[in-house]
Design a protein that fits this description.
Shape: globular
Strand content: over 45%
Number of helices: 0
Number of strands: 18
């Protein structure tokens, strides 16, 4: 189990005993996203960028440190997808933290993107929901939905979001 604190601590606990396995203290900027566990790493966001930690040892494997504040993350096929404060959707290599592509999407959103079938669905505070090719970063479409308060959810080819106090369903194609 993995926990983060806004003051900049990250904990790894044994699932069976609850015993602390590792503890990273004093990360600059505090932690601003929930942890994401994928491929043996714990990924999270602090005010300085994205961080990857070995889930077993707690050793920091990489930190971006060069991209502005992030939203929560999504993981698919060795790539981390995240919105940035400067209004971009960014794909990072999960092993290295290197930027694979960036797409301007208008404005920052604190909600995590969703990745289904090779498409990244991301909300932006500009009032649009974006569908973006996960490999290339090419925008497939955008749809005006208003202020989004939830992570997009995709079921049976329908994208669902809560925006402006309404549940909105959009055909993903």
């Amino acid at each position: 189990m993995y926990f983060v604190t806004f003051s900049g601590r990250v904990f790894g606990l044994d699932r069976e005993s609850g015993k602390r396995c590792w503890d990273i203290a004093h990360l600059a900027g505090g932690v601003v996203s929930p942890p994401l566990l994928a491929d043996g790493k714990v990924y999270f966001v602090n005010n300085d960028g994205a961080v990857a930690v070995d889930a077993h040892s707690g050793e920091i494997e990489w930190e971006t440190g060069t991209i502005s504040n992030f939203s929560s993350m999504a993981f698919s096929n060795g790539t981390i997808y995240v919105g940035t404060e400067d209004g971009s959707l960014t794909a990072l290599g999960a092993r290295s933290g290197q930027v694979k592509w960036t797409l301007e999407v208008g404005d920052f959103s604190g909600t995590a993107p969703a990745v289904v079938g090779g498409i990244v669905y991301a909300a932006s505070d500009d009032g649009f929901l974006y569908a973006v090719d996960a490999m290339t970063g090419h925008q497939r479409w955008r749809y005006e939905v208003g202020k989004v308060y939830s992570r997009p959810t995709v079921v049976n080819g329908i994208v669902y979001v809560v925006a402006d106090d309404r549940l909105i369903a959009i055909t993903s194609s």
